[in-house]
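User: Watch each token:
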Amino acid sequence: MSLIDSIIDTSTKLFKNQGIKDVKMDDISSALGISKRTLYETIQSRDELIKLCCKNYAMQLKIKFESVLNKEYCSTFERILTLNELYIRHIHDTHKSFLEEVKKNAQCDPKKKEHNELQFEYFERLLKEGQESRDGKLPEIDPSLRPEILSRLLVSQLKAVVQDPMFDYTRMSYFDVFSTSWRIFMRGIATEHGQKVIEEWIANNHKIAL
């Protein structure tokens, strides 16, 4: 691993665990076993390092999501719920200030709209798959619901969890609000068969339940 990759990898872990403000350049150079001068010779500034770490974090999460998306699952809900569990764990294990910084950097991405449309497109295909009878199994998701509306409702719901000031995170955790939001949404779109799939998934030793 190159020096710059080591710096980004180590810094990402520190920012993720401790937050943006509590990690100093001295902490990073100490963790790497290099001088602060060497650090600044490799990375132009702390702001530049934070941007690189945000991109690195987003890429790591994308790789994890893609591993779930490319894996074979017995049901649509099993795939969706596995993605949900992965996302909730990532929120739970990441310092809030770093999550906010990652989000801020994503807003500046010139390809943000393109990425969003691809996400909508994939989620719509996944929802349509869940609305079909496959291999003799009943639909898991209510076929009367429109996937293009469901995908956008879900995203707007998640944005509200992050941005709406009515959620006072000094009194409630982001983790609890997000998991509650998912619980309501997933159970709401499920058919009777889909509800059984959800219950079976929860019973299968999953700690984060809907």
